[in-house]
Amino acid sequence: MATNINTELFKRYAPKKKLEIIESLSPSELLSTTPATITRIIKEAGENRYKSRDKRLFISRDRQRGNSWNSTIEAVELLKGKVYLDVYVQYENTDTNTDYPLSSFLGRGESRVEIHRDDRYGNPRTYYSHYDEESKARVIKSILLQYVYNKYEDKLRKEEAA
Predict the structure, then answer these.
(1) Rounded distance, CA 149 to CA 147, Å?
(2) How confident is the model at residue 162 (pLDDT cuts 50, 70, 90)?
(3) From CA 143, how far away is CA 158, in angstroms rounded?
(4) Is the pTM of this model over 0.70?
(5) Calpha distance 29→52 (Å, rounded)
(6) In terms of Cα–Cα distance, which of 109, 92, 97, 20 is closest to 59?
């Protein structure tokens, strides 16, 4: 039976049960996560940006995932009503963060994050970071886990103490 994470995540389950559901999802079930679900996650568990209505759900270091090569996803942001991934990318002799639209990332097949920067000589260059479906599933899983840990932090702490 395929689990629809878009509805199961917001049902009235114990936080531990939600974590079990997320851990048991297959990559295809993770990739079926909709942008509306991610938007709701950010609105419920994200932090407000300074003097702004924008929100950001920072993913803790131990849950950050990427393409196992040159980039990781550090946060999910809701900026002026649009959802972006905050991608940390290493290239050549430096590194940078860039915002990448979530709608482009969630599409079927491979996603290619493009970064337009000048190289060390001032020449414009385009750098790429590729995400296959397996890498995208790991990133979505980390976002879902971070949501549960942020939203139900107190309840999870009480369960661990008991």
Answers:
(1) 6
(2) low
(3) 23
(4) yes
(5) 34
(6) 97
Any residues with CB less than 8 A from the CB of 45 and at least 6 apart, and which?
57, 146, 147, 150, 151
The residue whose two tokens read 């980039």 is 71
Which tokens belong to 24? Answer: 């048991």
Cβ–Cβ under 8 Å, residues 47 and 57: yes
Residue-wise DSSP of 37-51: HHHHHHHHHPEEPTT
H helix or E strand, kind and range, residue 91: strand 82-91
Give yes or no for a contact between 86 and 74, defined as CB atoms under 8 angstroms apart: yes
- Tokens found for residue 64: 């950050």
Per residue in 115-144, pLDDT (tens digit) is 888 877 888 988 888 899 999 999 999 999
Query: Are residues 59 and 140 in contact, defined by beta-carbon separation less than 8 angstroms?
Result: no
The tokens for 101 are 């639209």
Confirm if 76 and 59 have CB atoms less than 8 A apart: yes
